[in-house]
Amino acid sequence: MVRFQDSSQVHLQCEVALCRNPCPA
């Protein structure tokens, strides 16, 4: 799991989804 300082909410959603989908950088 990678942290996106530019997108906190996006990272949070990805984490909840177990990073199943590629998170938009």
TrEMBL record:
InterPro entries from the UniProt entry: ZP_dom (IPR001507)
Location of the ZP domain: 1-25
Protein name: ZP domain-containing protein
